[in-house]
Automatic annotation (TrEMBL), chain A:
<keyword id="KW-0066">ATP synthesis</keyword>
<keyword id="KW-0406">Ion transport</keyword>
<keyword id="KW-0472">Membrane</keyword>
<keyword id="KW-1003">Cell membrane</keyword>
<feature type="domain" description="ATP synthase F1 complex delta/epsilon subunit N-terminal">
    <location>
        <begin position="4"/>
        <end position="82"/>
    </location>
</feature>
<dbReference type="InterPro" id="IPR001469">
    <property type="entry name" value="ATP_synth_F1_dsu/esu"/>
</dbReference>
<keyword id="KW-0375">Hydrogen ion transport</keyword>
<dbReference type="InterPro" id="IPR020546">
    <property type="entry name" value="ATP_synth_F1_dsu/esu_N"/>
</dbReference>
<dbReference type="GO" id="GO:0045259">
    <property type="term" value="C:proton-transporting ATP synthase complex"/>
</dbReference>
UniProtKB/TrEMBL annotation, chain B:
<protein>
    <recommendedName>
        <fullName>ATP synthase gamma chain</fullName>
    </recommendedName>
</protein>
<dbReference type="InterPro" id="IPR000131">
    <property type="entry name" value="ATP_synth_F1_gsu"/>
</dbReference>
<dbReference type="GO" id="GO:0005524">
    <property type="term" value="F:ATP binding"/>
</dbReference>
<keyword id="KW-0139">CF(1)</keyword>
<keyword id="KW-0813">Transport</keyword>
<dbReference type="GO" id="GO:0042777">
    <property type="term" value="P:proton motive force-driven plasma membrane ATP synthesis"/>
</dbReference>
<comment type="subunit">
    <text>F-type ATPases have 2 components, CF(1) - the catalytic core - and CF(0) - the membrane proton channel. CF(1) has five subunits: alpha(3), beta(3), gamma(1), delta(1), epsilon(1). CF(0) has three main subunits: a, b and c.</text>
</comment>
<comment type="function">
    <text>Produces ATP from ADP in the presence of a proton gradient across the membrane. The gamma chain is believed to be important in regulating ATPase activity and the flow of protons through the CF(0) complex.</text>
</comment>
<dbReference type="Pfam" id="PF00231">
    <property type="entry name" value="ATP-synt"/>
</dbReference>
């Protein structure tokens, strides 16, 4: 089966670098599945899991604040953070989730940065999802 | 001449100091190593973002974004990276001197600029000079991760987006080699240079999902943030390089001092021995 080169890069280094058969991501405009030979595209990503398929195995990555760049020969995902299931601390993610939920519940009482709390919740959710999916 | 005991005490204390400085030299050397690795790992990220940004700018004309456009400057923001600890040679004073000079040359009054300062030493120094500050960040780890400085980058980008500042510069020591650091000023925002200087060769024509503007909206802040992070990594490498060099010089000086002191110790001992012999000989002669 045809493959393409995928690299996932963050400011703290490269997280994934290798040949894959398919990548599926959640872009701002909706779910995108990318197979080799895709039209060159640039799209911002939502905070969510990125699914990588290679030799019938599926890998998950938790990606936040990133975008995807598809070229004719390669796919790049650039994100502020990207983690493999092994790198995620489920306990920490759970605590972060609780904190974010608690903040969102108190919105009306205090001045809280709603946007930030929502993003934090989304990040924690994604991490939990990815770490459980492993 | 000082007594034997005094000299001995000084030799010992100098040796102790030497132990400390040489230990710090080695610690800095290993931290420098790590800092350089971090800087290397970060390199591809910023390069890729830059590729995409310039690709969009070159490929589609007529797009606009506040971060790409110069506007009349009413207030200038500066980010200055200092160290938390001292003992790094002229690292902090170099950057302070150049920054102060630039501020004096460029601005008539203190209302025209404000600084985001990173590092305890820098904060104390700038406070003493009464420089207006947006924020101060201290206690960053030696190997900062992107998350550690998220607040700074957010703040900087927000300041620009909210038009609190109309341009943004960053000041830091650029790492040339462990002995040499160069005070560097970089214009962060607006990103005029980055984009216009770039040639469009090799950039494929992309489909933009949903639109080039929407992508720039996310991408440009991300790019600006990555530039700040890059400068910080560079500055950290410089810091350890500067500290390593300073500590190596201190160790050498301590060695010289120990040598000098040992020499005067031996001289004093010799003098004491000679004097004693003279006294004995004199005493014996008097008996005859």
């Amino acid at each position: 089966m045809a493959t393409m080169h995928l690299s996932v890069v963050t400011p703290d280094g490269s997280v994934f670098d290798g040949e894959v058969e398919m990548v599926s991501v959640r872009a701002e405009s909706g779910e995108m599945g990318i197979l080799p030979g895709h039209v060159p595209t640039v799209a911002p990503l939502k905070i969510d899991a990125v699914r990588i398929k290679h030799e019938n195995k599926e890998k998950l990555l938790a990606v936040s604040e990133g975008f995807i760049e598809v070229r004719s020969d390669a796919v790049n995902i650039l994100a502020e953070a990207a983690e493999t299931p092994g790198e995620i601390d489920p306990e920490r993610a759970r605590i972060a989730k609780e904190r974010a939920e608690e903040r969102l519940a108190r919105i009306n009482e205090e001045e809280i940065d709603v946007m930030r709390a929502r993003l934090a919740l989304k990040r924690a959710d994604t991490r939990l999802k990815v770490s459980e999916g492993a | 001449m000082a007594s034997l005991k005094e000299i001995k005490g000084r030799i010992q204390s100098t040796k102790k100091t030497k132990q400390i400085t040489s230990a710090m030299e080695m610690v800095s050397a290993s931290k420098l190593n790590k800092a350089q690795q971090n800087a290397q790992r970060y390199e591809p990220y910023t390069k890729k973002i830059k590729d995409v940004v310039s690709g969009i700018a070159a490929g589609s004309s007529g797009i606009s974004h506040p971060m790409l456009e110069e506007r009349p400057v009413k207030k200038t923001g500066y980010i200055a990276i200092f160290t938390d600890q001292g003992l790094a040679g002229a690292y902090n004073s170099n950057i302070l001197r150049d920054l102060m000079q630039t501020l004096r040359e460029r601005h008539q009054s203190k209302d025209e600029y404000s600084v985001i300062v990173i590092g305890r030493t820098g904060r104390d120094l700038l406070k003493r000079y009464g420089i207006p500050m947006f924020d101060e960040i201290t206690g960053l780890p030696d190997q900062p991760s992107f998350n550690d400085i998220k607040n700074v980058t957010r703040l900087a980008v927000d300041l620009y987006a909210n038009e609190d500042v109309d341009e943004l510069y960053i000041w830091y020591n650029h790492f040339i080699n462990p002995i040499q650091q160069k005070v560097t000023e970089k214009k962060l925002l607006p990103l005029t240079e980055e984009v216009s200087e770039e040639n469009s060769k090799g950039t494929a024509q992309y489909e933009y999902e949903p639109s080039p503007e929407a992508i720039l909206k996310q991408l440009l802040p991300q790019y600006a943030e990555s530039l700040i992070y890059g400068a910080l990594l560079d500055a950290k490498a410089s810091e350890f390089g500067a500290r390593m060099t300073a500590m190596s010089a201190a160790t050498d000086n301590a060695n010289n001092m120990v040598d000098d002191l040992t020499l005067s110790y031996n001289r004093a001992r010799q003098a004491a021995v000679t004097q004693e012999i003279t006294e004995i000989v004199g005493g014996a002669a008097a008996l005859e």
